[in-house]
Amino acid sequence: MTTQSPSLKTMLEGLIGTLSVSSVTPAFDHSNEPLVALLAGWLESAGFRAEILPVPGHPGKFNLLGTLGSGPGGLVLSGHTDTVPFDAPLWSHDPLKLTEVDGRYYGLGTSDMKSFFALALEAARAFRASDLKCPLMILATADEESAMHGARALAEAGRPLGRHAVIGEPTNLRPVRLHKGVMGEAVRLIGRSGHASDPSLGNNALDGMHEVMSVILDWRTELQQAHRHPAFPVPYPTVNLGHIHGGDNPNRICGECELHLDLRVLPGMDPADLRAALAERVADVGRRRGLQWSVEPLFTPIPPAETPATAAIVRACESLTGHAAEAVSFGTEMPFLNQLGMDTLILGPGDIAQAHQPDEFLALDRIPPTLELLRALIRRFCVEGEDTMG
């Protein structure tokens, strides 16, 4: 017999009370090591083998893999250990303390998505390693909210995990099998400044960017006409011109101009191909106008992801929830888990409407159906074995 792990509420209190913010701004960024250590102890007390995996090139950042049972295949219950930064004065309750009010648990990470670890462990209590034909794994990753360093490191390492995966992101307990990719691109033009009284004294980068913007808007129309996916509420790729800055004074010819774009791309579209297509169009304008140009990513793209509707994990979760699998426009770690050979579904008790804002909460009435669902998945994919799903 293993030592009993803490109660569900105690685990929730520990998770919410352990700071694990990740951010691209160093002043806000924290190590997730304390949270990983806490989870590792709970996993071991529940009979799991716990492996703490440093994220290469990112000191203080760790992934954690807990495994119950052994053998090939199996089920991975996955989540990220980090949260976004927070503004404590805007909260009605202490964001780093689990607070129960009016049928809700308030706290940073209750919905997105620390609570999923406690629920996965609570569901796993019903099983021993000797019960399982295929292993059950609980995966906790680093830095999902900033650059997805943890999931990217797992994909680059290429170590096989399970055959089926559920990421417990907030979906209102509705299964999600596909999402768009996310790209951020910076377009920069460099011309030559000069006195505004005589255009021949310079080469106006802002004039050039006006043409670039027209070209990009035409390209956007082409993309929307060529690519459609009916599963998405917005069924085409989007290109948003979100930020522009150029020049420094109205009486000077603009010497430099920079434009930032947001692209949400459909499954089957390659971010590298899209950047190359964008660069080709910008280069065209640059050559015609004698401007230096560049197209650079603002961050490493989050690829689009799609798990087949026929996948066993999709069919199982549709059957158990009574909902057909859906599509969302926000990005997750799904493409990186799929790269490791898993069929991955997104399904969790939280609500995306509560994420990334003050007074984040998880409704208490979501807890029993989540536990029931997770236990059913463990029975189906670990106790009965994968072949039961055909």
From TrEMBL:
Pfam families assigned to the protein according to its UniProt record, in alphabetical order: M20_dimer (PF07687), Peptidase_M20 (PF01546)
InterPro entries (alphabetical): AcOrn-deacetyl, ArgE/DapE_CS, Bact_exopeptidase_dim_dom, Peptidase_M20, Peptidase_M20_dimer, Peptidase_M20A
Recorded GO CC terms: cytoplasm
Names of required cofactors: Zn(2+)
Molecular functions per Gene Ontology: acetylornithine deacetylase activity; metal ion binding
Keyword flag Cytoplasm: yes
Domain Peptidase M20 dimerisation: 179-286
Organism: Allochromatium humboldtianum
CDD domains, alphabetized: M20_ArgE
NCBIfam families: AcOrn-deacetyl, PRK05111.1
Enzyme class: hydrolase
Protein name per its UniProtKB record: Acetylornithine deacetylase
Entry's family note: Belongs to the peptidase M20A family. ArgE subfamily.
A single BP term in Gene Ontology: L-arginine biosynthetic process
SUPFAM superfamilies, per database record: Bacterial exopeptidase dimerisation domain, Zn-dependent exopeptidases
UniProt-annotated location(s): Cytoplasm
Keyword Metal-binding set for record: yes
EC number annotated for this UniProt entry: 3.5.1.16
Entry keyword set: Amino-acid biosynthesis, Arginine biosynthesis, Cobalt, Cytoplasm, Hydrolase, Metal-binding, Zinc
